[in-house]
Fold this protein.
Amino acid sequence: MNPGPTLGWLAVGAAYTVVLAGLLIFVSIMSAKRKRLAARREELEANQ
Amino acid sequence: MKSRILGVASIVGIAVALYFALVYAPTEQTMGTLQRVFYFHLPQAILSYLAAFLVGFGSLMYLATRDLKWDRFAYCNAELGVLFTTTTLVTGMIWGRLAWNVWWAGDARTNLELILGLLYVGYLMLRAYLPEREKRARLSTVFGFLAVLDVPINYGAIYWWETQHPKPVLGPRGGGADPDIKLAIYVSLLAFAFVYAWLLTKRLQVAQLEDEVGSLESTMEAS
């Protein structure tokens, strides 16, 4: 079924947003985790 | 340095892929503009399969060598598997809602993609419940191998069972897509492959840090 150009473009925009949002969420979680771990490592090394 | 090059290639690749998907590729006759969702959906699906093979490879190498770097490789790919199966399913649902008038067709292909995603989640959940590092690495390989098993069944589902899912347009059994459409697919696939490689490189660095902190904590507790 062809929903027409308006709904079609909306779907394309939504799909691309989902993909980019997924990537951004993954990168943000990874970056936060890296900062937390780096701080923890420094703390542990200082206590050794 | 490698990570930075991959990062730049990912950003440039995504911009180029966007141009090919939205401007360069002609509007498909049957589905119209909606078909352009496919340029994002297909690379996500292929990379969700790739993640399974890499989890399986990492698991196998871990069992063969008992080197934890392979376990890290496997679980970093499992996390990327969760990401790419999620984006595959959601972009597919957006397309399905307008093409088939349902959010979830419940056919073999979509159900097996969901199962693949759940296997990745199961793999990561199992790890979360196992505190002992070696045991965690050894037992989670089971889920890694199950994910590998899912992929050929998932791929063959559209040939073996009655499904609504469209047949592939690439490969030896693919349909006759317009060459410009095929080129846009290949560009998009290459762009997201760079993204995958970049995310994996970054995630492996964090995983290495996790193990370093874990071993420092064990040393502190022992002393």
